[in-house]
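Lab meeting, action items carried over

1. Structure of the two-component assembly. Owner: GW. Status: complete.
Input record:
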Amino acid sequence: MKVEVRVFATLRQYLPGLGVGEPKRVDLPEGTTFAELRDLLKLPLAEVKVIMRNGLQAEPEDVIADGDRIAYIPAVAGG
Amino acid sequence: MAKQILRINMSKLEATYEPVPEKWARWGGRGLTSAIVCDEVDPACHPLGPNNKVVIAPGWVSGSPAAPSSGRTSFGGKSPLTGGIKEANSGGLSSQKIAKLGLAAIIIEGMPKDGKWYSVFVNKDGVKFEDAGALAGKGMYEVDTLMWKKYPNKPAVIGIGPVGEMKLSNAGISVNDPENEPGRYAGRGGLGAVLGVRGVKVMVIDDTGGPGVDVANKDLFTEGRKKLTDAIQAHALTKKDGGLWTFGTNVLMNIINEAGGLPTRGFSAGQFEGAAKISGETVAENIEKRGGVGTKHHACHPGCIMQCSSIYTHEDGTAFVSSIEYETSWSLGANCGIDDIEYIAQATRECNDIGLDTIEAGNAIAIAMEGGYLKYGDKAGALKTFDEIRKGTPMGRIFGQGTEATAKAFGVYRIPTVKGQSMPAYEPRAIKGIGVTYATTPMGADHTSGYTIAPEIAGVGGKVDPLTDTDKTGLSLTFQAATAFIDSTGYCLFIAFPILDIPEGWDGMAKTVAGVTGQDVTGEKVIDIGKEILKKERLFNEAAGFTKEDDRLPEFMREELLPPHNVKWTLPDEELDKVYAWVHAG
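Predicted assembly:
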């Protein structure tokens, strides 16, 4: 499965070398969950507050689909 | 020492100090400005006439020892933009200095008979009125510099730029930050025009030698302060080196874009291909690269420990502008189809100088693009509009009146406003709860007044799906009530994020209010107290002529699909009417 992964704000430090908003293209085996991909990328569990798949909320145990646009997001809010 | 109300009468050029009457004694911040406006301003008055007032109040806790992030000021009056009650809230130096002079609120009323401009200087010895004719027409950067040259002790400077002098409905009230930049604003709703009608160009507040703020129960206050501080410092969003510290509110640009809720090119789409270029991450990278005086974290008021502001620099490291907020980068950027952060920095500076609310300013430009006056993405053309506003040309005056006036000048249908105020940086079709807030808050389309973004997007204070209509009316009301309370405390609203996730912090906030005021305020009472404030504001608006038809989103949002999720506004109007049904129930 080929997917695009983006990380933002304080999570960017864990995937150095990517431009702002630039995705990392990853090849994954069928059945990989968002939690498993998070761990594969070594994103600390405690720092991932929200997961998005194609702009929709996703849960860690959900299974990733081919072509997904994935985002791991830390705690954010503002005005 | 009992606090006082300072009443400034601009018709007589007189200042009187009054004891706080019993009916207002419970209140601070927004609770107090709304109480005073409801008591003293005729809801049917013309907002630019002699009977409107500007009320300024620090919060309950403002100025008390080491209360973290507690220097916010509430400004109240009848809004020329919405025609309803307004509380506009700002950081900067004003709150703590007003509080430390022993003042619960300042009421500015009347209008000078001679039509002149005045500066009003307030210190421990009283109030001085001076001719400010020499300041007329000057931008706030120059006014702030002149006021710190003229007066000692680095005072608070509250003022209006040229657009407020012209009494236009997108005039905000500027408050200087600790570096004396006019970067903080009581921006929304045109209260700068209301101050302009009073003939006040600038008000200077020096608290040196003032009586300070009394704390009724020091142990309770200290206990609460520690709990609240611990919560702020523990939460990933608000702690040192956390999200807001590092990236400011513009941390949201990429996230709201990812969620498909970033209003783009006049609310025609929910995703902008240039979002990354105008995001908080890009701003932070540039600040770091350029060095000099730039800083990613910056306190907009003394004692703030979240420090979400920043000082953006030119390429040579010299100061450019403070601060590029998310709303500002969005309204001047994505909503106008512009992806150049340097243009946005310049346009932000123009707004700071001329005295404009950046949200309304960007929306007005986008509407002009929608109407064909400019093309989407035209930076040079957009920058020229600020020149027009500053000079008060006919086109400039239209822009200075805000989004609806500009829409009318160009025959535009797709107007993203509620109660005459334009929507901020969250598309209601993709984030339903914030749409309920936009529709029903007494403030007009306003995001801070009921920030359901926290649970709908950020997973803060719970987690709900932004795309469903279910349970959003209750969610919005809860946030509106909690916000009305927090707006009364003097704390920055951003303490809501840690204290929604960390109950000890919520309890701590309530204890600091109880500790300072001596009132029986607890965490359990926050929502009910907030609802008292909301009820007053709703009743003012009803008396001003508002009906349920004013609690509606624009027609085009029911009709048009918003990409990428291809969604419409679907919540039935009868559901919106439930949000405030309790005001007249039983």
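2. GW to write a short summary for the group page. Key points so far: Residues 472-489 of chain B form the longest helix (18 residues). The first strand of chain B starts at residue 4 and ends at 9.
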